[in-house]
Amino acid sequence: MAEPPKPAHKTSAGHGSAAAPRRSRRMGAAQAEAFLRALAATNPTPKTELAYSDPYTLLVAVVLSAQATDASVNRATVGLFAAAPNPAAMVALGVAGVEAHIRTIGLWRTKAKNVVALSAQLLERHGGQVPDDRAALEALPGVGRKTANVVLSVAFGEAAMAVDTHIFRLGNRTGLAPGKTVRQVEDLLVARCPPDLIGSAHHWLILHGRYVCKARLPECWRCVAAAFCNYTSKVLSPPPR
Predict the structure, then answer these.
(1) pLDDT(140) > 50
(2) Which of 104, 136, 156 marks a domain boundary?
(3) Which among 36, 61, 70, 206 is least surrounded, fewest beta carbons within 10 Å?
(4) What is the pLDDT of residue 58?
């Protein structure tokens, strides 16, 4: 097993931003595996926090989640999915009908148009089914690489890594997968995730970035993988209240 780096004893500001996260020395392969297995040990069966029942509702939920919290999307989709649980029902509901359900989340007008348009395209080109093909997914309105990766991984069990703001920050800050672009971070994560971990790694990393390795102040004092992290400005105790 890799020798873990010695933690720094400092509480510091300036932990980077979403656009320009702090970048640490790249972990070695054994160290990276140890980091991931430490996360895995505390959450053996991680799941997305988005509420869905099938590949279609997952796809819609992920499209709606751009620049919105999972909690806000879940509140909006309770009524939306009751009214339109499949592509045909969503097209019948129409843009105005979708808008009525999702006004509480960001970019709701654009998202409503995309949800109806992608639903129509699923009916026209894929028999109403969500395709398990990256190119076909990314051809759908409102679906980019990150959304396609979530659907491929969660719905179809593909070895895909969706890199959002949290994972981009965490990959750079910890040294797990440092990179200047989202694609660089994604490719490095996929390359160094052991086969038995790749299916759950996205969930471990996004949850860790969301609740522990936070943007403004990483809570290193309660990080189960801190011993394997290369970040030199670790926050080893909570700030005084």
Answers:
(1) yes
(2) 156
(3) 70
(4) 98
> What local confidence, expressed as pLDDT, does residue 22 receive?
86
Write the CA distances from 59 to 51, 83, 97, 165, integer angstroms.
11, 16, 18, 19
- Contact, 163 vs 171, CB < 8 A? yes
Q: Are residues 78 and 111 in the same domain?
A: yes
Residue type at 44 in one-letter notation:
P
d(C-alpha 147, C-alpha 143), whole Å: 6
Question: In the beta sheet, which residues pair with residue 21?
Answer: 16
Share of the chain above pLDDT 70, in %: 93
If asked whether residues 170 and 102 sit together in one domain, one would say: no
Q: Which domain holds residue 182?
A: 1-46+163-241
Positions marked catalytic: 146, 164
Instruction: Report phi then psi at 90, rounded to 5.
Output: -70, -40
Residues belonging to the chain? 241
Burial of 84 (0-12, 13-18, 19+ CB in 10 A): buried
Residue 215 has pLDDT above 80, yes or no: yes
The reported pTM is 0.86
pLDDT bucket at 19, cuts 50 / 70 / 90: low
With a CB cutoff of 8 Å and minimum separation 6, the contacts of 115 are: 60, 63, 64, 90, 98, 142
107 shares its domain with 168: no
Q: Which of 97, 123, 156 is the last residue of a domain?
A: 156
